Amino acid sequence: MEAELQSSGIGLRFTQFLILKRLALIGPMSASELARSVELDGGAMTRQLDQLEGKGLLRRQPHEQDRRALRIELTDAGQAMWEQMTPCNEYVLDAAQKALDPTEREQLRDYLERVLLALRDM
User: Fold this and answer.
1) What's the CATH architecture for 2-97?
2) What backbone phi and psi angles, to 5 degrees, belong to 63?
3) Domain residue spans of the chain
4) Neighbouring C-beta atoms of residue 26, cutoff 10 Å
5) Fewer CB within 10 A of the end CB, N or C, for the chain?
């Protein structure tokens, strides 16, 4: 994925791609929720958020119910970047699954979702 991003002129690393993808698909969330969803520790997440915020792709906003907390959300530039990255994501996923027929792709997705749920429950 990272190679595809680079060849498309998108100067982001894979982890940064994942962060933008989560925010684009799920919406604003706390830094700790976001860190869990992309499997980063707090320090690594802070560094990534600082870099992405510096590029104008996301912002930290006060949480609506907890004034001690912040919500991380995409900026308009972050949303535009996600839309630019979406074809890269689709291309890599298609290439990775090209040997599978549609039924096998669906089975693989089901298996992986179940494995991920089991791991999250641990």
Assistant:
1) Orthogonal Bundle (1.10)
2) -70, 140
3) 2-97
4) 11
5) C
